[in-house]
Amino acid sequence: MLPQTLRITQNPGQELNTFLASKEYSQVFVILDNNTRKLCYSVIKPLLPEHTVIETMAGEAFKNLETCSFLWQEFTRLKADRHAVVIVLGGGVLGDLAGFCAATFKRGIDFILVPTTLLAQCDASIGGKLGIDFEGFKNHLGVFQQPALTLLYSGFLKTLPEIEIRSGFAEVIKHALISDSALWKEIRNLTLADQNWDKLIEHSANFKYSIIEKDPTEKGLRKVLNAGHTIGHAIESYFLQKGKSITHGEAVAAGLVAEAFLSFERGFLSLTFLEEIRNYVLNTFGKLDFTEIETEAIGEFALQDKKNKGKEILCVLIMEKGDAKWDYVIQQVEIKEALLYYLKP
Length: 345
Ligand SMILES: NC(=O)c1ccc[n+]([C@@H]2O[C@H](COP(=O)([O-])OP(=O)(O)OC[C@H]3O[C@@H](n4cnc5c(N)ncnc54)[C@H](O)[C@@H]3O)[C@@H](O)[C@H]2O)c1
Ligand SMILES: [Zn+2]
What we know:
Strand content: 15-25%
Bound molecules: nicotinamide-adenine-dinucleotide, zinc ion
């Protein structure tokens, strides 16, 4: 069950209005980016009390210290005190960054997350991880801090470009595969356009929240959330190094197929289940553009994964009955075989 501070809603403006009326905040800031200002702000604006808008530039390239400095300077210039509250209206980039700025300003002021992308609603806004990229390293600086409130509203997805929907959808598929085989069946019987987003957001949020509640510091169980990510991250890094950008979700979707192959090889998944995953992912995401020869280099990237222990590559494996187990040691050569399975005609 979701806690009181994490809500699925059909009216985020009204929820914000009620929440703010129950508190005595000294000032209300709304932080948004140039896209969410145009496309999402009007949903909440009419119902908000007096507030100050601060706009940042959209995109991962701005998830950095300069943008933080800008926000901290604005808070200072606008005389924010410790009783101010920050409403963050945006995707995972803004949630991580503005949440981090709020959590560190004057040792922490309240912040409210209103995630506007599927990825942020199903993944990034749940769990209290905040931070920014630094010196080329992703999420290198950060803190753990829970928001005062998180509001999940699927209506924001109406304006989200399809490429961004697909990016979040990979995490939704991951959550279904590792927690609920009946839900996976429902998902795979529908195209991307026909999915029931309210149901899927609720499932993802509930599932991720329940895992984090049981294992907040990633000692064990929380590792299941890395399903698809050992090979997925390797693919993402490889494409990044080649200067070809793919979304995180495209890489994770391919990673889920490749890692499902490793489960199949160990007898944890039937061939039917494996092929279902592959067919659905390829129909929804298309096939990534790399060749047999490049599978070697992708395997090299998996060796550098920060979740590894020493020289061992560790992987989460999906199980037939709809859950997953973690810390399986896999070999670089197996990654190559798994990617060849992904690539097969
Ligand atoms: N904290 C965590 O636990 C966690 C987990 C997963 C990912 N993340 C982080 O999330 C980030 C990725 O988040 P993302 O995929 O949401 O990307 P994003 O925040 O960059 O948003 C994608 C794009 O969509 C635009 N946008 C946002 N909402 C929109 C809407 N409703 N309509 C139209 N356009 C909209 C944004 O302006 C941006 O250009 C990464 O930085 C990643 O590290 C964090
Ligand atoms: Zn991910």
